[in-house]
Structures are given as structure tokens and as C-alpha cells.
């Protein structure tokens, strides 16, 4: 009789426990009693995210067991009880649940949290891939999500060997990934909070998104591009991108330019897809905020597309498709690196001496630009010089008969390029420069790539 009574009590307790269902997220405070039941599955990923508090405060503890739906896992241990260890406010545990299981919570009080259950990996995650900052003005910024859905590009083969046109046609974009932008002044210390989507999206994000669209910036894949306005000049900002509602990418940082910075932003040029920065141009026609392929003056864009067209024609005279050109690169690589170099030197990037890193490759300039005289005169600006490696990458990838040459670091390369930031300024050792990169995740940009 006592056994039956205990069995009845255990069943009643199990029935009062919320059931966590597959591919869904529980989002509340802890129930009473603080246990959840899990469905049976060959494998489950249980993920947890805290939705309030700070990283240096006491946090609740989460335990999981796959023994039975009436178990009460906790810090007291027991058979097959495992703790879900939290890092930066979230954590996960993956295991087999042939007969279901239980998640137990200790010390949560009224703190809100999320628990996700999935058979396809954790629903909560801090992504390894990072968002990207294009550039900023005093009040606006071009920002990008991490890359996803990389395009499939085959290597052309003889006899149907052809290269992309000077103005390539973009492939059909993929279905957009659910992506949310979070931007806040760095002084708000978002990095000291749980690095979870429910925590970050509960905060008020700075600025106004005036355009959000997909853009194939490079071979890494499509990105969500945001044009953000309404920012404050000379202010440090922290940025996150939240993907699929619960996955966090970031943080990365950027600084808006001073209020006297006058160069507008330019982006979404199919012939120069990597460009997303400020150029020495007058303000775009109202009500537009940035220049793109629809409003950039033809006198500026046409010389670039004409050079790309001529270069592609000459490159196609080489037997790239019939002969074994190189075990490392192809003529398609040559065209791609040449495009990057030509765009970097043809479209000067404005810099703000007040907010640029002290060691950046800056050059006071006066229009017309000697590399692209189509830029309007009368606009004095400070230019961020192209990285020398944009040139040397083209030199390495292209056939010798093209006669492409780059200036040497030991002579006059520093007059027109940023030298020694990525590769060594002495012997060209790749990655041997002072920073090893043209930019970093803290908003520093040393040369233009």
C-alpha cells in the first residue's frame, strides 16, 4: 500500500512538470517544483540561456538526467546526473534519452531563462563566425551579418572557358536567415551581460535601420547588410547579430566619425561587391543616404567597368582552360584579385584622422584623385591608402605575360600603399606585418582592402 502511494505521488509530481518539446524554447522563470521533463530520443541537445543579470553575479545551476521522468536531478548528484556548465550566460549538453529525462534548476529564483531542446544541435549558441563593419560616417554605418550560404562556383574548363563579366550577374539570393541587429554604445557594457540572444534583444538598440537586404559581398557567402542611421558622432559602439532567434554572433566594435566628416557611404556595386565605405563625393541626391549602383555617377563607375572588361578580354587570350596554368591558382583567381585591387585603387576610401588608429596608412589628398580623375574636384579629404597586399595578391595570381607589377616596399611603395600591416615590409613574408591583418574586430582599420 505504501509503495502504491509513493508511486502515485511520483506520477503526480511528474505530471506537474512542464514538457520540453523538440525544436522549441521554453522562456519563463523556473516552475515549482523546478523540473522539466524531456521527450525520448536517440540524441538530444539541451541548451540553456540566461536572460538577465551580469556575468559576475551568482547564476542558477542546471542539471540533466536521462534516467526517468520522475527523477529530480540536482547538485546532490545521483545516477546519470550531469550539470550543464554555463559560459557567458549560456551552455549546452548533448546525450541519449531512450526513455526521456528531466532537467532540474537550482537557485534561479525569479530570473528569466530559456531552455531549448533539439535533435540537430544546440538551439542556443555563440557563433564562431563574426559580423562585419563596412564603414561609418558621423551618424550612419554600414554593417553586415556573418556570411552564410556560400555560392557554388565551379572552375571553368576547356572548351567552355569563360570568366565573369565586368558587371557580373548575381545568383538568386537564398532564403533570408532570421537575423537581428543589436547596436549599443560601448559605454553601456553589453559585454559584461550574459551573451545571450534573450538578454541582448531585450535592450534598446541604437539608431534606425533604413535599409536591410541581402548582399553577396565575397566568396564567403551572402550577408544581411544593414544601413543604420541616427548614431552619435565620435562614439564607440558594440554590435551583435542574432541569427535564428537564439544564436549570437559578436561582439565587434566600431567608432563613428567626427561631426565634420563629410564623405558619404558607398555600397552595393556589383562590379566591386566588397566596397562598403565612405568616398570623397558630395551628398547623394535626397532622400537617399548612400551611393550605390543606381545613383553613383557614371563618370566614376564607367572607367572601372571598362578597365575590367578590357582586362577580362586580354586574360581570355591566355590558354587558361587548355593548359595547366598553375596547381594553386586559376585565371578566375587572377580576375578576382585584379577586381579587388582595381576597386581599392579606383575608389579612394575617406578616413577621419580624429578616429583612425594612430598607425593607419593615411594620406592627405586633394581631388581630383590621380587614380580616378572622375571624382569631383574641390573636396579635400584624408585617404586611407590601399593595402599593398591587394596588389601583390594580383601579381601572384596572374600570368606573367600581363606584365602586372607592384612597387617594392624597400623603395616607393609606401607613397601609394599601406605597407607592412599584413605582410612584412622588408621581405614580403605573408602575415608578417605589424598587425597581420588590414582590420580587426575592435574597429581598427589600418589600410583599405
Could you describe the 3D structure shown?
The protein is of the alpha+beta class and 449 residues long. The chain has two domains: 2-124, Jelly Rolls (Sandwich); 132-415, no CATH class. The chain is 14% helix and 27% strand. Helix 4 runs antiparallel to helix 5. The longest helix is centred in the last third of the chain and has 18 residues, at 298-315. The protein is elongated, with a radius of gyration of 27 Å.
H/I helix tally: 5
The CA-CA distance between the termini, in Å, is 79 Å
What low-confidence regions span 5 or more consecutive residues with pLDDT below 50?
A: 1-13
Alpha-beta classification: alpha+beta
Radius of gyration: 27 Å
Side-by-side strand order of the widest sheet: 1-8-3-6
- The ordered string of helix (H) and strand (E) elements is HEEEEEEEEEEEEHEEEEEEHHEEEH
Main sheet, how many strands, which sense, barrel? 4 strands, antiparallel
Shape: elongated
Tally of discrete structural domains: 2
- The amount of helix comes to 10-25%
Question: Notable features of this structure?
Answer:
2 domains, disordered N terminus, elongated, single chain, 4-stranded antiparallel β-sheet, 449 residues, 14% helix, Jelly Rolls
In short:
Helix 3 (298-315) runs antiparallel to helix 4.
Q: Which helices and strands occur, and which strands form pairs?
A:
Blueprint lengths: L1 H14 L8 E5 L6 E4 L2 E10 L10 E5 L15 E4 L5 E8 L3 E6 L6 E6 L6 E2 L5 E5 L4 E4 L34 E7 L11 H4 L7 E11 L2 E9 L6 E8 L3 E9 L9 E3 L8 E3 L19 H18 L15 H16 L2 E3 L10 E5 L13 E5 L3 H10 L52
Parallel strand pairs: 9-16
Antiparallel strand pairs: 1-8, 2-7, 3-6, 3-8, 4-5, 4-7, 10-11, 11-14, 12-15, 13-14, 15-16, 17-18, 19-21, 20-21
Amino acid at each position: 500500500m505504501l509503495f502504491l502511494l509513493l508511486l502515485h505521488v511520483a506520477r503526480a509530481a511528474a505530471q506537474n512538470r512542464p514538457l520540453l518539446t523538440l525544436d522549441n524554447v521554453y522562456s519563463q522563470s523556473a516552475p515549482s517544483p523546478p523540473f522539466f521533463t524531456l521527450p525520448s530520443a536517440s540524441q538530444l541537445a539541451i541548451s540553456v540561456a540566461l536572460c538577465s543579470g551580469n556575468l559576475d553575479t551568482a547564476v542558477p545551476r542546471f542539471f540533466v538526467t536521462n534516467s526517468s521522468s520522475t527523477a529530480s536531478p540536482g547538485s546532490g548528484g545521483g545516477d546519470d546526473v550531469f550539470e550543464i556548465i554555463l559560459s557567458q550566460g549560456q551552455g549546452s549538453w548533448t546525450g541519449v534519452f531512450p526513455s526521456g529525462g528531466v532537467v532540474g534548476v537550482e537557485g534561479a529564483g525569479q530570473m528569466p531563462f530559456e531552455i531549448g531542446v533539439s535533435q540537430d544541435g544546440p538551439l542556443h549558441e555563440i557563433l564562431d563566425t563574426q559580423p562585419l563593419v563596412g564603414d561609418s560616417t558621423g551618424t550612419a554605418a554600414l554593417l553586415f551579418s556573418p556570411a552564410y550560404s556560400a555560392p557554388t562556383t565551379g572552375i571553368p574548363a576547356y572548351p567552355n572557358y569563360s570568366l565573369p563579366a565586368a558587371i557580373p550577374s548575381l545568383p538568386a539570393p537564398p532564403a533570408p536567415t532570421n537575423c537581428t541587429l543589436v547596436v549599443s554604445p560601448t559605454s553601456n557594457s553589453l559585454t559584461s551581460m550574459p551573451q545571450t540572444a534573450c538578454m541582448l534583444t531585450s535592450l534598446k538598440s541604437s539608431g534606425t535601420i533604413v535599409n536591410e537586404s541581402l548582399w553577396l559581398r565575397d566568396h564567403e557567402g551572402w550577408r544581411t547588410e544593414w544601413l543604420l542611421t541616427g548614431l552619435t558622432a565620435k562614439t564607440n559602439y558594440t554590435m551583435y547579430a542574432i541569427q535564428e532567434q537564439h544564436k549570437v554572433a559578436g561582439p565587434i566594435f566600431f567608432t563613428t566619425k567626427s561631426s565634420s566628416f563629410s564623405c558619404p557611404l558607398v555600397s552595393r556595386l556589383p562590379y566591386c561587391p566588397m566596397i562598403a565605405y565612405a568616398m570623397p563625393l558630395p551628398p547623394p541626391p535626397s532622400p537617399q543616404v548612400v551611393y550605390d549602383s543606381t545613383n553613383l555617377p557614371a563618370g566614376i563607375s564607367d572607367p572601372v567597368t571598362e578597365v575590367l572588361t578590357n582586362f577580362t578580354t586580354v586574360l581570355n587570350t591566355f590558354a587558361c582552360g587548355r593548359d595547366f596554368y598553375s596547381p594553386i591558382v586559376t585565371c578566375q583567381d587572377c580576375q578576382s584579385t585584379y577586381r579587388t585591387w582595381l576597386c581599392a585603387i579606383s575608389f579612394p576610401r575617406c578616413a577621419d584622422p580624429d578616429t583612425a588608429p594612430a598607425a593607419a596608412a593615411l594620406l592627405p589628398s586633394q581631388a581630383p584623385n590621380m587614380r580616378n580623375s572622375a571624382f569631383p574636384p574641390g573636396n579635400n579629404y584624408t585617404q586611407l591608402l590601399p593595402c599593398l597586399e591587394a596588389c601583390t595578391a594580383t601579381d601572384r595570381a596572374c600570368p606573367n605575360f600581363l606584365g602586372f607589377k607592384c612597387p617594392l616596399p624597400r623603395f616607393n611603395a609606401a607613397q601609394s600603399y599601406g605597407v607592412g600591416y599584413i605582410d612584412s615590409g622588408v621581405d614580403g613574408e605573408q602575415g608578417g606585418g605589424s598587425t597581420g591583418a588590414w582590420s580587426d574586430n575592435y574597429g581598427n582599420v589600418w589600410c583599405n582592402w
